[in-house]
Specification:
Elements: H1 3-26, H2 36-45, H3 50-67, H4 74-95, H5 100-121, H6 132-157
């Protein structure tokens, strides 16, 4: 891992957070937007050491907290948990790449569920919303579909390569 790779990942995550909080605040198919920041974070957390992945997750979440209307620290905690889950299970999903799309669905759903629970605890009334299930499931479905394009893009931006039967290398 080189510093250049981390800077590239941070820049792409910055763009993802800006798109998440500006573009997808207006463009919302079926009244729900994809969780682009979480998806890009999963793409980079697959390749970086655990400490770097957690820092990228915390930084992206904190930036999203600052740009969105949510209590400070909720997204930072959720994105750190998303990075942790990705680092924790990346060995298994890299062995069988067919598991990547279901994993993206599961980690996105889990991250949004964690955000909903924490938001409800801190007074956001997220789970009290009538469309809470839709708001948890649809971004996970969007992310599962978008992962087919975003994950190869993130690997390409940092020069990660993979040969069949081997781990990713930077």
């Amino acid at each position: 891992m080189r510093t250049r790779h981390v800077l590239i990942a941070a820049a792409v995550l910055l763009v993802a957070v800006i798109l998440q909080t500006s573009l997808f605040a207006r463009i919302r198919p079926f009244d729900v937007a994809p969780a682009l920041t979480a998806l890009v974070l999963v793409g980079y957390a697959r390749h970086f050491p655990p400490e770097t992945a957690m820092l990228l997750g915390f930084g992206a979440g904190l930036l999203q907290d600052l740009l969105a209307v949510s209590p400070l620290g909720l997204w930072a905690l959720v994105m750190t948990a998303v990075a942790y889950a990705t680092v924790r299970f990346r060995g298994r999903i890299e062995e069988d790449f067919k598991l990547m799309t279901p994993f993206v669905f599961a980690v996105t759903f889990g991250g949004l569920f964690l955000f909903a629970v924490l938001g409800t605890i801190f007074g956001e009334k997220t789970l009290a919303d009538g469309g809470a299930v839709k708001k948890l499931l649809m971004p996970a479905i969007y992310n599962a579909v978008l992962s087919l394009a975003v994950l190869p893009f993130t690997a390409w931006t940092i020069g990660a390569s993979r040969r069949p039967g081997t781990e990713f290398r930077l």
